[in-house]
Specification:
This protein has 2 domains: 256 residues, Uncharacterised protein PF07075, DUF1343 (Rossmann fold, 3-Layer(aba) Sandwich); 111 residues, no CATH class. It has 11 helices and 15 strands. Strand 2 and strand 3 form a beta hairpin. The radius of gyration is 21 Å and the shape is globular.
């Protein structure tokens, strides 16, 4: 498709009509509101795919009811010519950080191109036989969870290679608050590419709007992008980027994921704890990988033996990690979802990493020597604050001025009613 034949604008589809009976996906939240992700609203986007060669960026979370979106599209007569897969692979069974190669999907015979292997952005060769790009992945709304970085590269490729991109939005299970330090761009990496907080309170569709509107894409993509926040689609509008919105979702929703998003986020409890306990990945502590409760079990062999104990060991989701086969002492943070939400109180909980540092006998060896904690935090200040003995309240207070500025930017790009 030639660039001159496209209108490079953002289109948000918000009307609702009935969709096919077999394609319903309804997730109840605590106030009995029914939420439907964008993928379930087939009547809105299938007409846009008819007669086109489609490439889809998807993984195990890309479900329409009990059927995978790829299977749903093929059964609907859509020509799916390529699948792109993120970290953990198309089927979601690779370890964190594990190199994922290209393959052929055994179920459908469709080629799978890994965007967490030899390259992270689709190339011209990858999309030479593609008319339209589709994106449908469940995110968890945390900066160092890499799916938003993959989204950025996918969006850049769509603009640079003149391919229209259709994003099927999904609720953000951590979309009901904003917290954490803003990324200092000196610490930019694939686990943090933009100046946003750790918990940024946006869906994938909203975040893509911000990437476009703030011109946070590559130089070539920004040169092509003529994003206009006020543009409204019409029935015959050509598009370069379009979001199919969720139904029933707001930023007050406590959305329960029907499919876990990666091998070491096995429960909603872990997803809620993840923004807080992932900091332990920058330390010598086990964050529970190799147990049945990763990111809910935190500990180390040198912590007091009177504390909760567990022994991590290799499993399907964690073939290698810290402290394997050693008895670790620390915390069991698992429990009732409501009690966990109350304990977190819509903020990142710093008390555990602060207490761990205080109790750990080898202060000089607490943080990993590669300073991975700085990539997670998005700065080198948090490590310094912990070493200085600052309280959780003092550290949180240091985030507030930048958070207030970010919230003003964020508001411009929201598609759903906010939590405040």
């Amino acid at each position: 498709m030639k660039a001159k034949s496209l209108l490079y604008l953002l289109c948000t589809v918000s009307s609702f009509t009935l969709f096919a009976q077999g394609a319903k996906q309804r997730e109840l939240i605590d106030n009995n509101v029914v939420i439907q992700p964008g993928a379930a609203r087939l009547d809105l986007y299938l007409p846009l795919l008819q007669g086109k060669s489609v490439a889809i960026f998807a993984n195990q979370t890309s479900m329409v009811g009990n059927i995978h979106l790829v299977d749903t599209l093929i059964r609907s007569g859509i020509k799916v010519v390529k699948i792109f897969g993120p970290e953990h692979g198309f089927r979601g069974d690779a370890d964190a950080g594990e190199h994922v190669g290209d393959a052929i999907d055994k179920r459908t015979g469709v080629p799978v191109v890994s965007l967490y292997g030899d390259h992270k952005k689709p190339t011209a060769a990858d999309v030479k036989d593609v008319d339209i790009l589709l994106f449908d992945i469940q995110d968890i709304g945390v900066r160092f969870y890499t799916y938003i970085s993959s989204l950025q590269y996918y969006l850049e490729a769509a603009l640079e290679l003149h391919k229209p991109l259709l994003l099927l939005d999904r609720p953000n299970p951590n979309g009901f608050y904003v917290d954490g330090p803003i990324l200092d761009m000196k610490f930019k990496s694939f686990i943090g590419m933009q100046p946003i907080p750790i918990v940024y309170g946006m869906t994938m569709g909203e975040y893509a709007r911000m990437l476009l509107g703030e011109k946070w894409l590559s130089e070539n993509a920004n040169a092509i992008n003529s994003y206009n926040i006020s543009t409204q689609p019409t029935a015959d509008t050509a598009f370069h980027f379009m979001v199919i919105k969720c139904m029933g979702y707001t930023h007050k929703s406590k959305y329960q994921l029907p499919v876990m998003p990666s091998p070491n986020l096995k429960s909603m409890e872990a997803i809620y704890w993840y923004p807080s306990t992932c900091f332990f990945e920058g330390t010598v502590f086990s964050e529970g990988r190799g147990t049945d409760k990763p990111f809910e079990y935190i500990g180390h062999p040198l912590m007091p033996s009177t504390m909760y104990s567990f022994v991590p060991s290799p499993n399907a989701g964690a073939k290698s990690s810290k402290c394997f086969y050693q008895r670790c002492y620390g915390w069991d943070l698992s429990g009732n979802i409501n009690s966990i939400l109350k304990k977190l109180d819509n903020r990142i909980q710093l008390s555990y990493i602060l207490d761990a540092y205080k109790l750990f006998p080898g202060k000089d060896s607490f943080f990993l020597k590669n300073n991975f904690i700085n990539k997670l935090a998005g700065n080198d200040l948090l490590q310094s604050q912990i070493k200085q003995g600052m309280t959780a309240s003092e550290i949180s207070a240091s985030w507030q001025p930048a958070l207030q500025s970010f919230k003003k930017i964020r508001k411009k790009y929201l598609l759903y009613a906010d939590f405040e």
